[in-house]
Amino acid sequence: MYFNTTALARQLERVWSEAFKPFDLTPPQAFTLRAVLAKPGMLHSELADTLRIARATATRAVDGLVTRGLLERRPAERDGREWEIHPTPDALILKDSLNAASGAVTERLKAELGDEVFAGFVKQARSIGSYLS
Question: Which residues pair with 79 in a beta bridge?
Fold first, then answer.
C-alpha cells in the first residue's frame, strides 16, 4: 500500500504541477488559493479542515501566498484573536484561470479513469484518510 500510494502521489504531483506552472504556483499553493477564493474570510482552522491538512501546514501555505501578494490576513470580526484570510485583487484576477486549469486536470483524469472509477477513488481515499487520522 505504501509504495503504491507514494508512487501515485508523485504522479499526481507532476500532473498538478504542470497545470499550475503557468501561474508560478505549486499545487499546495494553488489549492490553498482556490479554497480562499471560494470562501473569502475563512479562518486558518477552516482552511485546514477544507484541505484536510494540519493547521500549521495551512498557516505556512498562507504565509507563502501573503508574501507573494495573493492573500492577506485581517482580524476576524467574530473573534479578534483569530485572523480571516482574504484574496487580494491580484488573486481575484487569477480565480477563473486557476479554476479552469484545475477543472481541465479533473476532466482529463475522469476521461482516463472513467467517471465511476474517479469518483470511487476519491470517496475511498477520503474514507481511508479519515480512518488513519
Answer: none
Instruction: Collapse the DSSP code of 32 into the 3-class scheme (helix H, G, I; strand E, B; otherwise coil) and give the result.
Output: helix
3-state class (DSSP) for residue 74: strand
Region for residue 132 given its phi and psi (left: phi exceeds 0; alpha: psi -120 to 50; beta: otherwise): alpha
- The per-residue pLDDT for range 13-41, each reduced to its tens digit, is 999 999 999 999 999 999 999 999 999 99
Residues 6 or more apart whose Cβ sits within 8 Å of residue 44:
55, 58, 59, 62, 82, 83, 85
Q: What angle do CA 4, 59, 107 make, to 5 degrees?
A: 45
Alpha-carbon distance 71 to 65, whole Å?
Answer: 6
Separation CA 133–CA 129 (nearest Å)? 6
Q: Which three cell numbers stand for residue 84?
A: 480571516
Which tens digits make up the pLDDT trace of 55-99? 999 999 999 999 999 999 999 887 777 899 999 999 999 999 999
Better-predicted residue by pLDDT, 126 or 14: 14
